[in-house]
Automatic annotation (TrEMBL), chain A:
Cofactor annotation: Mg(2+); Ca(2+); thiamine diphosphate; Mn(2+)
Coiled coil: none
Any one GO cellular component localisation term in the record: cytoplasm
The enzyme's E.C. designation: 2.2.1.1
Signal peptide feature range: none
Family: Belongs to the transketolase family.
Protein name: Transketolase
Pfam families reported for this sequence: Transket_pyr (PF02779), Transketolase_C (PF02780), Transketolase_N (PF00456)
GO biological process: glyceraldehyde-3-phosphate metabolic process
Enzyme class, broadest EC rank: transferase
Keywords recorded for this protein, A-Z: Calcium, Magnesium, Metal-binding, Thiamine pyrophosphate, Transferase
Organism this protein belongs to: Sinocyclocheilus rhinocerous
UniProt GO molecular function: metal ion binding; thiamine pyrophosphate binding; transketolase activity
Quaternary structure and partners: Homodimer.
Automatic annotation (TrEMBL), chain B:
Role noted for this protein: Catalyzes the transfer of a two-carbon ketol group from a ketose donor to an aldose acceptor, via a covalent intermediate with the cofactor thiamine pyrophosphate.
Keywords assigned by UniProt, alphabetized: Acetylation, Calcium, Isopeptide bond, Magnesium, Metal-binding, Phosphoprotein, Thiamine pyrophosphate, Transferase, Ubl conjugation
A GO cellular component entry from the record: extracellular exosome
Superkingdom of this protein's organism: Eukaryota
Assembly description: Homodimer.
Record-listed E.C. numbers: 2.2.1.1
Species this protein is from: Sinocyclocheilus rhinocerous
GO biological process: pentose-phosphate shunt, non-oxidative branch
Lineage, opening ranks: Eukaryota, Metazoa, Chordata, Craniata, Vertebrata
Reactions accelerated catalytically: D-sedoheptulose 7-phosphate + D-glyceraldehyde 3-phosphate = aldehydo-D-ribose 5-phosphate + D-xylulose 5-phosphate
Xref: CDD domains: TPP_PYR_DXS_TK_like, TPP_TK
Record gene name: tkta
The protein, known as: Transketolase
Length: 625, 628
């Protein structure tokens, strides 16, 4: 096939739309008296060609699974995205003037409150990773013809996560992915480091395996042509590096410093708009987007249940990380929608058990945790898949900004962190997650599972697959005994009382390794005739406050929490928050209070005061008081 | 230009011998303790030998000598080979090496600064090069000295974006004193690394990022010596093609050997084999001495020479006060440096830049790298570093911050635009989890100043406080509430408003402290008096002041914060007052992902404004009246 230049009328119509988008962007940001009109103007021709020439989608059904996807990674250009959907007819032109208002869904940066937004953007450098997840899904899971377009700013090309995504896209030959770089030279507080050095951008994109075109970003014909070539290119993703000018079309403002994030002054807006209007030749020539090939089935939203109950016997010894791998594989057996990914730790997190059973549904993301989380989010958009991404719990710290944004994106990703706490032993503090509960608790849409044996891990995985919002499952390295019957039922927000008697004098709340330490303390104290109650919270968020309060009362108001985590933001503080106003309850907290070190797991549990020994001592202390 | 002299055969053999001894010790130690990554050590044996016994200039008996070349082992899991080098030098005893990773050893599984020869902890991959950039920047632009910085990376970690942030930074700032060695041993942990042995692809990527890149056989000491001696006008990457497990026949270039130790029997036979390759050479290798041209530096007692120059009632944003304070501190100590991520006009660090342009580093939109550069600049107590960005974007660098604590780093960070007060920009830009993550850093001190006077004091205190300091600033203008001569201390709260008849204690900070003061005014009209406390530091929190005052308001306390419920001010107070009998505690915080809108509307919607506070005070009083 060879390229046919669009006719002059079409080209003029695309130019006209670009200027209309500029006018909308100016009006919107003048109305809100904030926003980034100059960052919109540099992208006007790009948006016009993408939305009215290249992309195939149903303008009245933005979430149609067959539609091409568009991700505005440079989220601060939101007004021009809204303008494009106004031109496409999905939103009313008058609504545009409610930009950034408290009762409008047209927020300062795009969020999925809007049907045409799949992932929230606004924290720079995250769009391309999500686009990779969508493109991977389109190519390998949906095996469909929809394509994925992601527009980036030049400032955000300084973010490492962009290059993680670039490497991923070429490694997996995502030829259905196009990255459009709006190189408008100027950042927020000064010029971007590469300015208009187009060759350097080109070399970087090519070195990272992209089919790359450098174009004049204000020339609609060049854009049409490059985007057409992108579609013909097989085996490689395409980068369109567009040389543009920030504030293009705005006299006296174009390519000038100090205009980032500033609406046009009220007294100049009219003149600027009139100037743009004068360049529009046929204001009423509508262009309609091409319709997509309808080759994608609607998402199957039926709950995914384990086909068989867990196959563990009480007393069996296994790590919860291994139980995760087994459970994930079983969920994969139950539904083809379950997909998994890892950051080159699959033999440690045991996601390789899933990979062995379902190789076509496993994505190796290599050592790029930020990108892995973005890919997981991308895969989960439009409910195309139920994604589980795993690595060491500590390394989710690397992707915390992405996880934070996932909440704003209303994403349903499931994240699984192994090797939590000091109980990993010799590898030392750099590999120990001791802040992950604090991190995930502070994500508003998050459910935090902290299973303590094989059975509860398997149920956590099943529940996570069917729970909205972000789910985090914290798994441990050491082997621990199975404590629940295979038929035991688990629910989000429902704790288990693991040991109890009528004579219990203290309630101990532990999870994972420390639950087993609590059980050991229970046995030891029982020999001395002291009875303690032991609670497994199962989920740390939401925490089962009523079970905890009731049991605390039954044990004279005495509670001890013990956790393989720092003292801040983890299980202990979650319990304190849950107990809130309850009078007469005394809580002692055992947690790691300083940067730990290498050593044998048991030695470290002792050294940092969260072992059975420490619990026994704490129980004795509460009696002494 | 330096002329390259090929090392003589004796030197070459001596370097090969050292490489093989490093292999033997790495295998011996990991087998002895049953833990570690011997195959990842074996691929770098020649690289380490050439670096430490031929290329680098340093005083082996004086690790912290400021003139020494620096070395960062970014692939921290190869720690045993680093320790073996120091055994070879004679600084460590072999017996110490054989008990590494044990609970009483300072030789940990991954390097930490418990060892003098380690400046920063590594082990979370992809972080070493950014730190190396900070050190190289310091050498070139602050110390103006000739020491160089060497960073050894693995190929697996080249997938981390943080590496490419650092690559872009190094070339942008022409760090020709920085040399990165890439150990391309093909194999990752669970799979081959994505580019396998395609060294030309690595070269192309490095060159595109502005580096001089040389491909060598990583097991040829001659090639390594030559490449490392090349003159440099830009940062240099030595792309060393190596074999993972080199010298261990069963493991060489084989999957399934990452992080696996050899059995005792196997280790003995392998070590015998390697030993047989060590040829007699009388030549002892000594590192060359460094050029002594680093300036003396003292960071002691960095004080503001004068009190803050603000008048009560004056209105100024704490983010602006931060910029002014750092600029002022910079006037009196030339080792105060600042950096930002292209947000300097928001965080107001541009005030510092305008006054001290040579001590400001623009890091562009690369938050991970900025924190690493800050850590590198602060290493060996060479600079007092203030790095700023929007509060919420420190989430991007949380792994680097976590590692900064393990590194015993003394960096200072300032996050502006916290909370809902960012308004129309919407949730993507609102820091609502920053206190939670900084509280969970064991070495952190968290300042949350509520006016310009206390912001200036916070900056001065942060400069003199060990560990990671975080200053949370706010965008809107707020009134000055403290006198210029007010004394501030870490861990000391201020009672901002009190009266004998106070019935409830309200604790707020930043914007919410001002909302609490407004609520106090409002309630006064109803003859309800409240006590208002400014905690000043959230960590450590002044538990004593809080408990004393809550007691005197009959145990009633309310916290109000522009942050999510979890991990912030409320939970900090909760932790501080737990087990105090008779306290009634209520919290106001943000419970959901927020949205765009005017700050005042958002404060109302999410219930952290003056009306919400006043209402909760009334409710608390009426329910306690009912209880009677």
């Amino acid at each position: 096939m060879s390229y046919h230049k669009p006719d002059e009328k079409t080209l003029q119509a695309l130019k006209d739309i670009a200027n209309k988008l500029r006018i909308h962007s100016i009006k919107e940001t003048c109305a809100s008296n904030s926003g980034h009109p100059t960052s919109c103007c540099s992208a006007a021709e790009l948006m016009s060609v993408l939305f009215f020439h290249t992309m195939r989608y149903k303008a009245n059904d933005p979430r149609n699974p067959s539609n091409d996807r568009f991700i505005l990674s440079k989220g601060h250009a939101a007004p021009i995205l809204y303008a494009a959907w106004a031109e496409a007819g999905f939103i009313k032109e008058s609504e545009l003037l409610n930009l950034r208002k408290i009762d409008s869904d047209l927020e300062g940066h795009p969020t999925p409150k809007l049907a045409f937004v799949d992932v929230a953007t606004g924290s720079l450098g995250q769009g391309l990773g999500a686009a990779c997840g969508m493109a991977y899904t389109g190519k390998y899971f949906d095996k469909a013809s929809y394509r994925v377009y992601c527009m980036l700013g030049d400032g955000e090309c300084s973010e490492g996560s962009v290059w993680e995504a670039m490497a991923f896209a070429s490694y997996y030959k995502l030829d259905n992915l196009v990255a459009i770089l709006d190189v408008n030279r100027l950042g927020q507080s000064e010029a971007a480091p590469l300015q208009h050095n187009m060759d350097t951008y080109k070399e970087r994109c090519k070195a990272f395996g992209f089919n790359t075109y450098v174009v004049d970003g204000h020339d609609v014909e060049e854009l049409c042509k490059a985007l057409w070539h992108a579609e013909q290119t097989k085996g490689k993703p395409t980068a369109i590096v567009a040389k543009t000018f920030k504030g293009k079309g705005l006299k006296g403002i174009e390519d000038q410093d100090n205009w980032h994030g500033k609406p046009m002054p009220k007294d100049r807006a009219e003149e600027l708009i009139n100037d743009l209007l004068s360049q529009i030749q046929s204001p009423n020539k509508p262009l309609h987007p091409q319709l997509p090939n309808e080759d994608v089935a609607l998402a199957d939203l039926t709950p995914i249940r384990l086909l068989t109950a867990p196959e563990y016997k009480i007393g069996d010894k296994m790590s919860t990380r291994k139980a995760y791998g087994v459970a994930l594989k079983k969920m994969g057996d139950a539904s083809p929608r379950v997909v998994a990914m890892d950051g080159d730790t699959k033999n440690s997190t045991f996601s390789d058990i899933f990979k062995k059973a379902h190789p076509d549904r496993f994505i190796e993301c290599f050592i790029a945790e930020q990108n892995m989380v973005s890919v997981a989010i991308g895969c989960a958009t439009r409910d195309r898949t139920v994604s589980f991404a795993s690595t060491f719990a500590a390394f989710f710290a690397r992707a915390y900004d992405h996880i934070r944004m996932a909440a704003i994106s209303q994403s349903n990703v499931n994240l699984v962190g192994s090797h939590c706490g000091v109980s990993i032993g010799e590898d030392g503090p750099s590999q120990m997650a001791l802040e992950d509960l604090a991190m995930f608790r502070a994500i508003p849409t998050c459910t935090v599972f902290y299973p303590s044996d094989g059975v509860s891990t398997e149920r956590a995985v099943e529940l996570a697959a069917n729970t909205k919002g972000i789910c985090f499952i914290r798994t441990s390295r050491p082997d621990t005994a199975v404590i629940y019957d295979a038929g035991e039922k688990f629910e989000v927000g429902k704790a288990k009382v693991v040991r109890q008697s009528d004579k219990d004098q203290v309630t101990i709340i532990g999870a994972g390794v420390t639950l087993h330490e609590a059980l050991a303390a229970h046995d030891q104290l029982a020999k001395e005739g002291v009875n303690i109650r032991v609670i497994d919270p199962f989920t740390i968020k939401p925490l089962d406050a009523s079970t905890i309060v009731a049991n605390a009362r039954a044990t004279g108001g005495k509670v001890i929490t013990v956790e393989d985590h720092y003292k801040e933001g983890g299980l202990g503080e979650a319990v304190l928050s849950a107990l809130g106003e309850e009078p007469g309850i005394v809580v002692h907290r055992l947690a790691v209070s300083r940067v730990p070190r290498s050593g044998k797991p048991q030695e470290l549990l002792d050294m940092f005061g969260i072992s059975a020994k420490s619990i026994v001592a704490a129980v004795r202390r509460t009696f002494a008081n | 230009m330096e002329d390259y002299h090929k090392p003589d055969q004796q030197t070459v053999q001596a370097l090969r011998n050292i490489a093989n001894r490093l292999r033997i010790n790495s295998i011996k130690a990991t087998t002895a303790v049953g833990n570690g990554h011997p195959t990842s050590c074996c691929s770098v044996a020649e690289i380490m030998s050439v670096l430490f016994f031929h290329t680098m200039k340093y005083r082996p008996d004086d690790h912290k000598n400021p003139n020494n070349d620096r070395f960062i082992l970014s692939k921290g899991h190869a720690a045993p080979v680093l320790y073996s080098v120091w055994v070879e030098i004679g600084f460590l005893k072999e017996s110490e090496l054989m008990s590494m990773c044990q609970v009483d050893s300072t030789l940990e599984g991954h390097p930490t600064p418990k060892q003098q020869f380690v400046d920063v902890a590594t082990g979370s991959l992809g972080q070493g090069l950014g730190v190396a950039c900070g050190m190289a920047y310091t050498a070139k632009y602050f110390d103006k000295s000739s020491y160089r910085v060497y960073c050894l990376l693995g190929d697996g970690e080249m997938s981390e974006g943080a590496v490419w942030e650092a690559m872009a930074f190094a070339s942008y700032y022409q760090l020709d004193n920085l040399l990165a060695i890439l150990d391309i041993n093909r194999l990752g942990q669970s799979d081959p690394a994505p580019l396998q042995h395609h060294v030309e692809k690595y070269q192309r990527r490095c060159e595109a990022f502005g580096w001089h890149a040389i491909i060598v056989d990583g097991h040829s000491v001659e090639e390594l010596c030559k490449a490392m001696s090349q003159p440099r006008h830009q940062p240099t990457a030595i792309i060393a093609k190596t074999i993972k497990g080199k010298g261990i026949p069963v493991a060489e270039d084989k999957m399934g050997w990452h992080g696996k130790v050899l059995s005792k029997d196997m280790a003995e036979s392998v070590m015998r084999d390697i030993q047989s390759r060590i040829l007699n050479s009388n030549k002892r290798m000594y590192p060359a001495s460094p050029i002594e041209d680093a300036p003396p530096v003292s960071l002691r007692n960095v004080r503001m020479p004068s009190a803050p120059n603000y008048k009560p009632g004056e209105k100024i944003a704490t983010c602006k006060a931060y910029g002014m304070a750092v600029a002022k501190l910079g006037r009196y100590n030339e080792r105060v440096v600042a950096m930002d991520v292209d947000t300097k006009n928001f965080t107001c660090s541009e005030i510092f830049k305008n006054e001290h342009p040579n001590r400001f580093i623009e890091c562009y939109s690369a938050e991970q790298n900025m924190v690493s550069v800050a850590t590198g600049c602060a290493a060996r107590e060479l600079n007092i570093v203030f790095a700023s960005g929007l509060a919420t974007f420190f989430t991007r660098a949380y792994d680097q911050l976590r590692m900064a604590a393990i590194s015993d780093s003394n960096i200072n960070l300032c996050g502006s635009h916290c909370g809902l007060s960012d308004g129309e920009d919407g949730p993507a830009h609102m820091g609502l989890e920053d206190m939670a993550i900084f509280r969970a850093i064991p070495t952190a001190t968290i300042f949350y100043p509520s006016d310009a006077v206390s912001t200036e004091k916070a900056v001065e205190l942060a400069a003199n406080t060990k560990g990671v300091c975080y200053i949370r600033t706010t965008r809107p203008e707020t009134a000055i509430i403290y006198n210029s001569n007010e004394d501030f201390h870490v861990g000391q709260a201020k009672v901002v408003c009190q009266n004998k008849e106070d019935q409830v204690t309200v604790i707020g900070a930043g914007m919410t402290l001002h909302e609490a003061l407004a609520a106090a005014e409002q309630l006064k009209k109803e003859r309800i008096h409240i006590r208002v406390i400014d905690p000043f530091t959230i960590k450590p929190l002044d538990a004593k002041t809080i408990i004393d005052h809550v007691r005197s308001t009959r145990g009633r306390v309310i916290t109000v914060e522009d942050h999510y419920y979890e991990g912030g001010l409320g939970e900090a107070v909760c932790s501080a007052i737990v087990n105090e009998p008779g306290f009634t505690f209520q919290r106001l915080a943000v419970a959901h992902v927020p949205r765009s809108g005017k700050m005042s509307d958002l404060f109302k919607i999410y219930g952290i404004d003056r009306d919400s506070i006043a209402q909760l005070v009334r409710k608390m009083l009426s329910s306690s009246a009912n209880a009677k």
